[in-house]
Amino acid sequence: MELNGRPVTPGELGPLALYNYGHFTTMRVEDLRVRGLSLHLDRLLGDCRVVHGVELDLDRVRHLVRRAAAAAASPAVVRVTVFDPELDLARPAEKAHPEILVTTRPVPADRRPPALGVAEYERDLPEVKHSGMFGALLQRRFAQANGYDDVLFVNARSQVTEGPTWNIGFIRGGRVLWPRSDRLDGVTMRLLDEALRRAGVPSEAADVDTDELATMDAAFVTDAAAGPRPVGAIEGAGLSVDEPLLTTVRREYAALPADLL
């Protein structure tokens, strides 16, 4: 864990821990290469303007990520968190001086297809990948306490949006459907959508109501750490994990080139 390329102190982490005000992106780094690197950097740049009101030095970010990834076992999950250690809780509109916290962890082991519960929940400012994760993780906790592996969010209109830390795609009739209600446009989702279109697979954003879930042939979740993973069930209703298009989804994602840091 490094702040601006040096070990971070507990005091410097205080504002992030106490106020949870910042934004981040998470990427999988393998041999110092990242799928969708430019999209991760663009996200950090745009979110920094929204959250902190200042520009972010992307060359510096890239250098710090490369430094941290080079010191970690490959592959690694690298998270870049941008926050202001001097944030004043009473005056958050004061000019910010955000710093760059880079953390690494091992890539998660392959897991069985998750069984998802469903909960009505909408993240604050869902288009920004901000560090305010209390509500999302609380809903995940509730779902796991009820015997599920994770939770799928729907909005007040019973339309599917996203998960706590992932996007979801559905397969129906040979097409891939991405819920288009308010949610984060994940990097993995964007890369995969483009790859599927190039491969000739119909892939589109659509409203997905909860009463349509029973009509889906299969579903998969996407995140940068693990890529696309099939879903085993939603609210106890099983989904196919052998749907041929799932194989295509995984193959097209695995074939995506990665950019050098």
TrEMBL record:
GO terms for molecular function: transaminase activity. The keyword Transferase applies. The keyword Transferase applies. Keywords: Aminotransferase, Transferase. Gene3D superfamilies: 3.30.470.10, D-amino Acid Aminotransferase, subunit A, domain 2. SUPFAM superfamilies: D-aminoacid aminotransferase-like PLP-dependent enzymes. Belongs to the class-IV pyridoxal-phosphate-dependent aminotransferase family. PANTHER family: AMINO-ACID AMINOTRANSFERASE, AMINODEOXYCHORISMATE LYASE. This is Aminotransferase class IV. It comes from Sphaerisporangium dianthi.
